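Form 7-S
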Amino acid sequence: QVQLVESGGGSVQAGGSLRLSCAASGLTFSIYIMGWYRQAPGNQRELVARITKDGSRYYADSVKGRFTISRDNAKNSVYLQMNSLKSEDTAVYYCGALGSSVSWGQGTQVTVSS
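Output:
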């Protein structure tokens, strides 16, 4: 059974930084595409960034140049470094393991105040 546990969320002022972590278990982590998604109240869940097993990265236009996704296959973990945070980044952030279906973590709240 796939388990994803996010951590690192919190409240920060605009311009600040946070680093999210996601610890995975129950899967062969190194072969999975891993992604970070977010969902703000009243909005659909959206892809923020994803990283392939080989380290290729994709970013949503809204976070390019500010967010960095990385992974450590030895630790079965994926990270999201978020810099220059804006109020519009406020959302619940979810870690996703992209296989034949998507497995989700429970989410971690990020609140950015202006």
